[in-house]
Design brief:
By secondary structure, the chain is an alpha/beta fold. It has eight helices and eight strands. The chain folds into three domains: 48 residues, no CATH class; 48 residues; 153 residues, 2-Layer Sandwich (Nucleotidyltransferase, domain 5). The protein is 35% helix and 16% strand. The strands form two sheets. The protein has a five-stranded mixed sheet, with helices on both faces. It has a three-stranded antiparallel sheet with strand order 1-2-3, with no helix packed on it. Strand 1 and strand 2 form a beta hairpin. The longest helix is centred in the C-terminal third of the chain and has 19 residues. The chain binds zinc ion. Zinc ion binds next to loops.
Length: 270
């Protein structure tokens, strides 16, 4: 993978529907000679790595990609010594720092909970048919709840995912308590499973389903990521959710949810 390909990849992850200015939300930008995006409307310059763990890195992106690939494919975890062979031969210090940074990015869900404004929605993963009946579960599919900190206008914050048995108030409430700090403003659609949120200490804001853009985005990334894993389609997709947030990633969470019951078979049968 070349450096340009890595950048291109990050760009597609960050702006799947094309450039969006972090300041004014405009969609037109030109590239500066330093590879930054300069918004044509407000002039703000932004880099594709801003807000990710790659921000201001002096190391080539392809080294980061290779490292993440390495870490995510190790069955029994990884230590700095092992990483040194991949990352920086001869430099224990560097590989230790990298490991630390990546570990922080892959921290276990539930260790610290989301707060502030959080968008929550569920999605079905797996199965051969599209859609699925809400609440009761659909055949061959796994229901995953997705919580995403809404940092508008800055965009996306931390992410939490959990596989749940169904979309009942009990299951969704369990997700909330494990993943979201009480007192947070939780934005959901009008599904009845969310009506008891205030009794759990959350403020609930009901939005039209189509406005829950953040969990929808994460859902589509999650699905692409899983396809990449189970079909070996695009190996690079393995690292995908890692890239999204500076302090946390969907990667471990998805893997967690995965262990809990993703319908892997249905992917292989496609
Ligand atoms: Zn702008």
């Amino acid at each position: 993978m070349t450096e340009a390909a890595c950048l291109e990849y990050l760009t597609r992850l960050r702006w799947p529907d094309g450039f969006v200015c972090p300041q004014c939300r405009a969609n037109v930008a030109w590239r500066t000679s330093r590879g930054l995006w300069c918004c044509q409307r407000c002039g703000v310059q932004t880099s594709v790595t801003a807000g990710t763990i790659f921000h201001r890195t002096r190391k080539p992106l392809r080294l980061w990609f290779r490292t993440m690939w390495h870490i995510t494919t190790q069955k029994y975890g990884i230590n700095a010594l092992g990483l040194r062979r991949v990352v920086a031969p001869g430099c224990y210090e560097t590989s230790w720092q990298w490991l630390h940074k990546l570990r922080r990015a892959m921290v276990r869900p539930g260790r610290d909970r989301l707060s502030g404004y959080v968008q929550v929605d569920e999605t079905y993963v797996g199965g051969r048919k599209k859609g699925g009946k809400r609440g009761r579960g659909a055949e061959g599919k796994a229901l995953v709840v997705i919580g995403v900190e809404d940092k508008a206008p800055k965009g996306i914050g931390r992410i939490r995912l959990q596989h749940v048995a169904d979309a009942s108030a009990k299951s969704l409430g369990g997700f909330m308590q494990a993943m979201i700090e009480p007192g947070s403003v939780v934005r959901t659609d009008d599904w009845s499973g969310y009506t008891k949120l205030p009794t759990l200490g959350y403020k609930r804001e009901v939005l039209p389903s189509m406005e829950l853009k953040l969990p929808h985005l994460v859902a589509s990334l999650l699905k692409r990521w899983l396809l990449g894993i189970y079909q070996g389609a695009v190996s690079g997709l393995r690292t995908l959710p890692t890239i999204w947030t500076s302090s946390h990633s969907a990667l471990t969470a998805a893997r967690h949810a995965n262990a809990a019951n993703f319908s892997i078979d249905s992917y292989n049968r496609r």
